[in-house]
Amino acid sequence: MTETFTSDTPATALVTAREAACLTQEDLAERSGLSVRAIRNLETGRTSRPRAHSLLLLAEALGLPPGAAQRLLGRPHADPRTVSPPRLPPAELPAAPRHRLVERERLIASLQHLLTTREQRDHARPVIVVGPPGSGKTSLILQTAHGVRDQFPDGQVFVDLHPASSPPLTPDTLVRRILRSLGGAPAADNPEEAGARLRDVLSRRHVLVVLDNADSEAQIRPLLVEDVRSAVLVAARRELPALPAQFGHRIGPLSPSGARAVLEDLVGADRVAGDRSAALSILRSCAGLPLAVHIAGLWLSARPHRSPRDLAGRLLFERDRLPVLRVGDLSLQASVAAHHGSLPAPVRAALRQLGGLSDDFSADDALHRIAPSRDLALELLDELLYRQVIHISRADVDGRIHYRMYEAVRLYVTHCLTDPLVGCGTSGRIWLPRQTTSARNGG
Fold it and tell me: Which of 79, 191, 336, 433 is deepest in the core (most CB within 10 A)?
């Protein structure tokens, strides 16, 4: 004879929780370490006085919130002062940028479509955005993520994989970090088991994981799940060619018209038009880099009493540009320094040897600077290309490739690593750049 239970009994609570998790008794037995027979006896009431330890194992295996765990343990009327409130889904996204992301609108729409088109298996593929320092990768992924967060009701997790002045997060650390955010059972000491638990959580929930400053494929692999529920959006400092089945998107400097639009958005079209030559000089100094133009606009908007010519004068000498392009906690120099610090030592050494090349250069030009053989030089140039510190500028009619450093990287390597008078890379130093006569007259 089958015993009947009320909704408050452990038996009914266990059946309800297991069915809600879409698990069979066999699945739950494998997760909890209990036998299928023990679970069957609990659900049918044959075990009238279940051990508390067994119920705790079941609650952990099901990932139950505190209230549901209390019901499973047969304590539906526990003192509310001792019961934690239900855990809300994580909402960890930093604030979206308030400014318009000029020339990125179509890309943002495309990324949002990729992240939310769940009827296609392609949704399981990570979306990777890569670009040089200061190109606006973080702003781009945050704008994208905020536009689709309602499509991921089980939470949005944000992790900076390589915070400033800290070593990059290892894959194992990242797995545990995301598990804690999602309220899963504490990860076991075994990294393989922790990774399996994370994949299980991501495959059963609609979660958006956003990763910033990725340095390697190994940081992304633990999140790859053959499912269409969760999605992964990444801003990477380098291309990740070994990562399978990715949607990769490169971004770079803005066009001259796009850079001007950013400046006009921040300081007003009338002010830009009122001193057109100075505005053009500022934009040339910023080389179309979104972060540089944004900082220049903020510098001017914070100083309505100053002329654009004042800033143009301060940016006239290239050794002064990185230290000058700083407003509050926004610093182009800091962005480039963080990117440079993430490079392997051989890549940093090769980059420094190329620091004197301000124009286009070929593999032959770089050969005697960075490597003793042409093959090794080509390998290093490919790595510099993947690491977003140089780019292909053109190809000759005979197919010979020409490269060029990204301008902000060139300034950092040329001046900040070789000229101690500039003060690049120092902390806490007050530095006043050399200024032209017009800049000094402007205050």
Answer: 336
Euclidean distance between CA atoms 428 and 407, whole angstroms: 25
The beta-strand segments (E) located in 17-121 are none
In contact, 251 and 226? CB cutoff 8 Å: no
The H or E element containing residue 208 is strand 208-214
Among candidates 334, 279, 283, which has minimal Cα distance to 134?
Answer: 334
Instruction: Give the residue, 242 or 63, on which the prediction is more confident.
Output: 242
* In 63-136, alpha helices (H): 66-72, 105-116
3-state SS class at 71: helix
Residues contacting residue 248 through CB under 8 Å, at least 6 positions apart: 128, 130, 239, 240
**Residue 31, both tokens:** 């997760």
- Report the Cα–Cα distance between both ends of the chain, in Å, rounded: 93
The answer for 136, left when phi > 0, alpha when psi is -120 to 50, beta otherwise, is left
Interior angle at CA 99, CA 169 and CA 430, nearest 5: 65
pTM over 0.90: no
- Write down how long the chain is: 443
Q: How confident is the model at residue 145 (pLDDT cuts 50, 70, 90)?
A: very high
Please give the backbone phi and psi of residue 391, each rounded to the nearest 5 degrees, phi first.
-145, 160
Q: Are strands 231-236 and 156-160 parallel, antiparallel or unpaired?
A: unpaired
pLDDT at 387 over 60: yes
